[in-house]
Amino acid sequence: MSVSTRLSIYWPESQVEKRPEETDTIVLTTPSGKYIDIRSYKSQVLLSDKSLTKFPFEWAFAGNELPVKNHPSQVEFSHDFFDSSFILKYCRTKRDGHGSLPCRSDIPIDCGTFKTLDNGVREETGKMKNESTGNFESYIEHWITLDPLKSTPTNMLPLQVVQDGSLNYALFDILENKQNFEGRFIRLGVWAQGLLWDKKNLEFPISIVRLHLNNKNWDIIISFGRRVPFFKSLASTEVHNGEIVKNFDVIWTCLEAGII
């Protein structure tokens, strides 16, 4: 279970010079390995409906993190559960009526190899789709694990020691109406992130949110899409494992909840 942020990414095969990190990337991962990874561009932190004409994210996806058997330093990341690139292409193809619809089973599984550098930064190497080129390329990413209780959007504190206090976490997933919606919401410590695909809306199918708990209020850090109010109310909902929550016209189930 972790809250992570990316410090940098470099694509050696693209022959592009290393540049400062252009995104505010945060990944929330539950104890079972289910995660949400949201990579918003730094120039557009807080968004509104007026920004819906352009998708202001490098990538937004969710899936499962699974260690590779007999290779403890390698981790597989599936994201066929939710992938903004696939969804946008699917909706564009269906809306325009040209070409074949993309197949979800064709979304590749990324595999990263991790090592911890002397400065505590986690270095990940592997191959995945470069959203800038559309090609499957080698990459080098640097990550830090954040303190899930003390970090803030303006002060990303690295996790130094095991938490002294208890850490609440909860994962929601769509239970019913999968013909209309698909999505995931994770609340972990003072952070929460959510993704939702409204399948009936081909123009603006994706809603995304990142929230941070400030005292007793969940502040919106990133807000994009028509259904952001769904997530704000979910963040304040206390749930138990297996509990069903009806949120507006979407029915969710809590797949994980607990205190560590």
UniProtKB/TrEMBL annotation:
Keyword Nucleus part of the UniProt annotation: yes
GO cellular component, one term: nucleus
Predominant localisation class: cytoplasm
Gene3D superfamilies attached to this UniProt entry: Protein HRI1, C-terminal domain, Protein HRI1, N-terminal domain
Top-level taxon: Eukaryota
Coiled coil: none
Classification via CDD domains: HRI1_C_like, HRI1_N_like
Cell compartment(s), UniProt: Cytoplasm; Nucleus
Keyword Cytoplasm: yes
Keyword list, A-Z: Cytoplasm, Nucleus
Pfam families, per database record: HRI1 (PF16815)
Protein family (similarity comment): Belongs to the HRI1 family.
Protein name: Protein HRI1
Natural source organism: Dekkera bruxellensis (Brettanomyces custersii)
